[in-house]
Design brief:
Blueprint (H helix, E strand, L loop, with lengths): L1 H19 L4 H8 L8 H20 L21 H17 L3 H6 L6 H19 L15
Helix pairs in contact: 2-4, 4-6
């Protein structure tokens, strides 16, 4: 049941990305072009996601446990390190250059294009490189649990 729920959540997420226009790199790049031909439509998509998440997290975390798991798995780290900041920077640069972030890129695999495939290859190489770099401290592998 847990696998089925994960699949359904991923399917819903992918459909939301597609319907919201997040899988269209031209629309994403238009949204990021603040001083050019700015396309504000994705602000509504992101605003809806933020509001839904804000309300949903408050409701879900009042429950004693998830429906299909023994407990919640929430991050406990609150510090910023070079790996996090470097990864966030690379993510932003890649998003700005390609118009894709990982979720919409995977959701777009049904219609692969050369830029999409280049991004996915770069993303896989980036994941591999990140695993090769030593963690900055023992806290980098801290466990996840309900706080």
């Amino acid at each position: 049941m847990k696998t089925l729920m994960a699949y359904l959540a991923g399917l819903l997420f992918g459909l939301g990305l597609a319907i919201g226009g997040m899988t269209d790199p031209a629309r994403v790049l238009g949204f990021l072009d603040l001083f050019g031909n700015w396309d504000p439509t994705l602000a509504f998509v992101m605003g809806g996601a933020v509001i839904t998440t804000f309300i949903g997290y408050r409701w879900v975390l009042r429950q004693p446990h998830p429906l299909f798991a023994a407990g919640f798995q929430l991050p406990t780290r609150r510090d910023l390190d070079a790996r996090l900041l470097g990864g966030a920077t690379l993510f932003g640069v890649g998003w700005g250059l390609s118009g894709y972030c990982p979720g919409p890129a995977v959701a777009s695999l049904a219609g692969p294009t050369p830029p999409l495939l280049a991004l996915l290859i770069a993303m896989i190489v980036g994941w591999w490189l990140a695993r090769q770099l030593p963690a900055s401290s023992s806290r980098a592998s801290s466990s996840l649990h309900r706080s």
